[in-house]
UniProtKB/TrEMBL annotation:
Single GO MF annotation: proline dehydrogenase activity
Cofactor(s) it depends on: FAD
Catalytic reactions on record: L-proline + a quinone = (S)-1-pyrroline-5-carboxylate + a quinol + H(+)
The protein's annotated pathway: Amino-acid degradation; L-proline degradation into L-glutamate; L-glutamate from L-proline: step 1/2
Organism this protein belongs to: Salipaludibacillus keqinensis
Listed Pfam families: Pro_dh
Name the UniProt record assigns to this protein: proline dehydrogenase
Signal peptide annotation: none
């Protein structure tokens, strides 16, 4: 059986990544990546908006190692925010701090984020800092805290498989958070390994964040968790404007439109760009259904 660890290994394998562009489209990558350019991403967002769905776009790429690359990535984020405003679409921006130079120079990364958030503020838009692997967690939260001294329209993600997630949620009261299970391979020293433990902790942090009155973006494809969140909101009189559901572009599209028709905010995470490989491998690692999806694409060619 193809395992989660196998795909997580592939996500970090440079040799396979170098070869991936030749067979990536056959594995269904084009069905979950909204093209390579900003224009292609905006057209995808427009189509989703017409179905009653909101969007957040993410220019794929991570682990930048030079100042010039980091500045270039920040400039691209700013152009993306400009494009969102020009297209008049319902869409936020998601990004990774490693793209903006977190591993190069923290101050460089902060300055890049300030430029991006100034642009988002001009357009009254929101920026989500994606959470990366555990080694970047403290630096991400520290920088978020610093940025929120000046900017309100910025948040991050908390990963439900981490033991510390509940503590982090309490310390981030009032922050718009995307709540996810987690997609990286982490040590048993810092993360739950059994699915039932991850699910239990994930639901706990969702409920904790919703109860303290903070905005929660519940990012899951698990219909059981979605149903439980709906029931929990009704039980505690939490109105639909206090939370939203999020799913990945290309996965469970029918459920996405069904949720939107029920009057809930349904936001689709829309990745785009040439550097799709690591993202795609992590999606395959998350759920067996995703592997089936990819193999179906391979066999249909």
């Amino acid at each position: 059986m193809i395992t989660r660890n196998f795909f997580l290994f592939l996500s970090q394998n440079k040799f396979v990544k170098a070869k991936a562009t030749k067979w990536g489209p056959k594995l269904g990558a084009k069905s979950v990546i909204a093209g390579e350019t900003i224009d292609e991403a905006m057209e995808t967002v427009r189509q989703l908006n017409e179905q009653g769905l909101s969007g957040t776009v993410d220019h794929l790429g991570e682990f930048v190692y030079s100042r010039d690359e980091a500045i270039e990535s920040a400039d691209f984020c700013i152009r993306t925010l400009d494009a969102i405003a020009e297209a008049k679409v319902d869409c936020n921006l998601s990004l990774k701090l490693t793209q903006l130079g977190l591993d190069v120079d923290r101050n460089l990364c902060r300055d890049n984020m300030v430029r991006i958030l100034e642009t988002a503020e001009k357009y009254d838009n929101f920026v989500r800092i994606d959470m990366e692997d555990y080694s970047h967690l403290d630096a991400t939260l520290e920088l978020l805290h610093e940025l929120r001294q000046r900017f309100d329209r910025v948040g991050t993600a908390i990963q439900g498989y981490l033991y510390r997630a509940e503590k982090d949620i309490r310390q981030l009261e009032g922050v718009n958070l995307r709540l996810i299970k987690g997609a990286y391979k982490e040590s048993p020293e810092v993360a739950y390994q059994k699915q039932e433990e991850v699910d239990r902790n994930y639901l706990n942090i969702i409920k904790s964040h919703m109860l303290n009155g903070s905005y929660a973006a519940v990012a899951t494809h698990d219909h059981r968790i979605i149903d439980e969140v709906k029931a929990f909101a009704k039980e505690h009189n939490i109105t639909k404007d206090k939370f939203e559901f999020q799913m990945l572009y290309g996965f469970r599209s029918e459920l996405q439109t069904e949720i939107a028709k029920e009057g809930y905010k349904m936001r689709v995470y829309i990745p785009f760009g040439e550097d799709w490989y690591g993202y795609f491998m992590r999606r395959l690692a998350e759920r067996p259904q995703n592997v089936t999806f990819a193999l179906r694409g391979l066999l249909s060619k």
